[in-house]
Write a structure and sequence with these properties.
about 100 residues, mainly alpha
Length: about 100
């Protein structure tokens, strides 16, 4: 029996070939490092903007907007009328759950 191929790194939302090996689950520290490298700051209570979530999950900001309207995706909050942000811990949990669901 032929083994299943490794899940492609570009489809693993938490994959960063420079820092993560194959099969490494997302951690809060690795996500924080990727955000810092991209210059995306967290709020004082550990929330990040949609651009940061899009970077970490390898989706577009429009996809995040669609997920919010469909009741899908990572947890989020509306800070005021125009600003949405996501708890980093919730994004990590969502990423791990999605990776387990879609991995071979």
């Amino acid at each position: 029996m032929m083994p299943l191929p490794e899940f492609p790194a570009y489809l693993r939302p938490h994959a960063d070939p420079a820092t993560d090996g194959p099969g490494v689950s997302a951690t809060l520290a690795s996500f924080e490092a990727r955000l810092a490298k991209a210059g995306i700051a967290q709020t004082g209570d550990g929330h990040i903007p949609p651009e940061g979530v899009a970077l970490l999950l390898v989706v577009s900001v429009k996809t995040l907007r669609n997920w919010r309207s469909d009741g899908k995706g990572p947890p989020w909050r509306k800070r005021n009328r125009q600003h949405i942000d996501y708890p980093l811990a919730g994004v990590v949990a969502f990423s791990d759950a999605a990776a387990k669901f879609i991995s071979f």
